Amino acid sequence: MQEKKYPITKWAIDDRPREKLLSKSPSALSDSELLAILINKGTRYQSAVDLAIEVFRKGNNNLSDLGRLTVKELMRIHGIGQAKAVTILAALELGRRRQASLPPERTSVTSSYEVAQYLQARLRDHPYEVFGVVFLNQQNQVKQFSIISKGGLTSTVVDSRIIFREALETNAVAMILCHNHPSGSLQPSNADLQLTGRIRDAARLLEIRLLDHLIVSDQGYFSFADNGML
């Protein structure tokens, strides 16, 4: 018979995740301790912290990999039911959306790095290729971000008519194309180059500036503009 674990309620107050957060700050807690707060209760033989460690192990001890798991995959861990799995994934999604949000005081896009950070948080966890467009106003403020198409592991089909329809509907005067590479590679393909050229030429006819095309992955980003390819 498995030995029963020492429950969190018997731990020193400073070692209990909730009490530690209240007495110190969220940043003082480890990833496992923060996850234990979401899990709330452990099992008969595992504390919430022990269970959190098991969950992280399922995600290769990496928050990014953990965010790619599904509810069903999390529920394969003994002690993680549907409610706990949903809570974990909801918290991870909120973190992803926070990272993807431009700070209110940042009124305009000023660099490829800034846009890449915004896009990586939105696109990097997709297991398939996704193509999107950031639409901007005259001051390069983000008016809207739209997913134009979703494809397979290596490519996606992009209808430029959808891009320009949304550009006109949002009264955008500039835009930034973007897509992810699930493989991690940041090298643009011939199809990427051809598509960028077609959209750039069509945008000029509508007096819409194409500022950049970014490829993002877990490895970083590639900017067509920074590399003189526009």
Describe the model:
By secondary structure, this protein is of the alpha+beta class. It folds into two domains: 8-99; 106-223, Cytidine Deaminase, domain 2. It is 40% helix and 16% strand. It has helices spanning 17-23, 31-39, 48-58, 63-66, 71-74, 82-100, 112-123, 160-169, 190-205, and strands spanning 130-136, 142-150, 174-180, 209-217, 220-223. The chain has a five-stranded mixed beta sheet, with helices on both faces. The model has no long low-confidence stretch (mean pLDDT 83).
Kindly summarize this structure in a few lines.
This protein has helices at about 15-25, 30-40, 50-60, 65, 70-75, 80-100, 110-125, 160-170, 190-205; strands spanning about 130-135, 140-150, 175-180, 210-215, 220-225. The protein is α+β, with helices and mostly antiparallel strands and about 230 residues long.
Q: How does the major sheet shape up?
A: 5 strands, mixed
Quickly give the CATH architecture of the largest domain. 3-Layer(aba) Sandwich
Separation of the first and last Cα atoms? 67 Å
Write down the CATH topology of the largest domain: Cytidine Deaminase, domain 2
The CATH homologous superfamily of the largest domain is termed: Cytidine Deaminase, domain 2
Helical stretch count? 9
Gross geometry: elongated
How would you write the strand order of the largest sheet? Answer: 2-1-3-4-5
